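Service request form, structural biology core

Requester: graduate student, group of Dr. S.
Request type: structure prediction, single chain
Budget code: on file
Notes: please return the result as structure tokens.

Sequence provided:
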Amino acid sequence: MTDGTGAGTEGGTDALAVTVRRTGGFAGVARAWTLSLGDVDEELGGRLRALAGEAVAAPPPPAPPRADGFRWSVVLHSPGGDSALEAPESALPPALAELVGLVREHGAAP
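Core staff response, request fulfilled:
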């Protein structure tokens, strides 16, 4: 079941995982990180859920890519299905930018 934001509401803290993928940049190297809410404490898990809900409720506006700029793809995995968001770094809304930062800081390469 989802709560309308793409974030799962069943299964406790493991009901959501977030995968972040960064492409582009000067070197064109792709990187990815994944974080499961089952791997973090309740406080961080709650913050990740809130940011995921905000990001889905207010997706990034369409924006043209910038030369040598990064492009971010964020996939929110839940039992009810996945939600995907994508934006160039220059157009990341604050909630999505914070979500990306937390997944990069606490997640692992898949």
